[in-house]
Write the structure tokens for this entry.
Amino acid sequence: MGFNSIFLLSFLGFCLVSNGSDHSKEQSTAILIEVDQSGNGDYRKIQDAIDAVNSNNSEHVFILIKPGIYREKILVPEDKPFITLSGTTKAGDKTVITWSESGGIFESPTFSVLGSDFMARYLTIQNEHGSGAKAVALRVSGDRAAFIGCRILSHQDTLLDDRGRHYYSNCYIEGDTDFICGNAASFFQKCHLHSLARGTGAITAQRRQGPAEETGFTFVNSKITGAKSAVLGRPWGAYSRVVFAFTYMSNVILPQGWDDWGNFSNQRTAYYGEYRCYGPGANVSRRVNWSHSLSSQEAKPYLTEEFIDGAAWIRSVPSHFRRITIASGRHVNRTS
């Protein structure tokens, strides 16, 4: 039995163990593509594997990325749905996708997801540019995207959570200025948010622009740490909506909690809430008077994946894999 066969069998066991925590209703079959920098896979580069997926794909394609540092700028295009990119172990720091670029928020991302029904598992996604400029690590503009056990790293605008419904579970996200921003409807569960700001930073900058928009960020059972001080959020859009529940807040969080971004009118329209958070930064007695300490009834809509209709689309790790012939000729028809 060759190295690749042993590796695949080990990974299949890992997937079956992992299935129980990935909110699936049923097991599934996926087309398997392997990426390995050493040449022991179907492709050496991640983007080449994505490019090999057919336009308007209707099957689940599982791209397994072996450990290494991949210096690539990645795009999952709008016409390629149902793609999963996965590292090989739950240690998300073993498979690293990194780039260094600053500039516009739509031009600088290391990794851009435009396709729907996307999933990433156990990856580090990093923009190495550093502080002082917009340098997005991850842009998510497709609907129904999920990120499991990923590390998302930059400074300003780390995660551009642009639009669509998104799910983040057990992710580590760090930055200094507005490092989770955009106008998606997103549910963050058991995530660790770390502020790198050396002055006063802002964790979120949600961009909801009208009362009818069903967007916002909700963080449940998460943790906030940091280097110095930060606010929980400030309104990029006048109707910005962010809720933290059951979340540990270290003393990095300033007593006022929230900021109106220098515009008094935002205080009348932004919706910022907290529910049963704890830790030295969670004391609401000195919060700005236009934020909300939520009752159990007020908090209820934000506490589960129903906020993003997650039960309908968050899929499991596939339990079976098959290979198909593609342009490289390396795949053969086979079921694992």
Remarks:
- The chain has four helices and 28 strands.
- The longest helix spans residues 3-18.
- The CA atoms of residues 157 and 210 lie 22 Å apart.
- The longest strand covers residues 29-35.
